[in-house]
Amino acid sequence: MKNKLCSSIAAGLISTSAYAAERLPTIPPDQYTTEQQKAAEEFLATRKVPVFGPFEPLMHSPQVMSQARAMGDYLRYNSAIGNTLSELAILITAREWTQDFEWYVHYPIALKMGIKPEIANAIADGTRPVGMTTDEEIVYDFSTELHKNKRVSDATFARTEKRFGKKGVVDLTGINAYYSLLAMQLNVAQYQAPKESKKLVRFPE
What we know:
Organism: Undibacterium aquatile
Distance between the termini: 39 Å
Protein name: Carboxymuconolactone decarboxylase family protein
Strand content: under 5%
Shape: globular
Number of helices: 9
Signal peptide: 1-20
Number of strands: 0
Keywords: Signal
Radius of gyration: 17 Å
InterPro entries: AhpD-like
Oligomer: single chain
């Protein structure tokens, strides 16, 4: 279900005007180098849609784009914590980086996957959500500590390992890191979300 939903959202993004800014503008396919063409073909074969979103600025380094896409293939769709909780971690990451496009793409996916709107909206507001499940609390605490403290406490680590195992700890760390990478690329590129999308509040530095 999630692959179909993501493909639908990606197709919608592709059908609209380009969102790239001047820093790392979207490269027209007819201007691809041989390496870029190969990377784009692999992306299409794997994701079933043309290159879109954060992968557009990444196409200026097709090797990085392909490696990032491959990591995302696992972390987004097959991680040890499951797709619903991965979307929660992605929203936390998008909020941490104030990444409007990442939020625009993943907010509806998170709701479809079962994250309650009030939980997602609290994250957007920068407040701790109430009414989370035990698993959501674990993912929220782990992800928030990792982003804000640049490390995770012994208690939070132990709780996460007990629930998801060492593989789950590594995968959850990877999800936060991977979507930080995409958010950083989007922020550096000044890649714009659609005008009608929700804009995350810019918190004081």
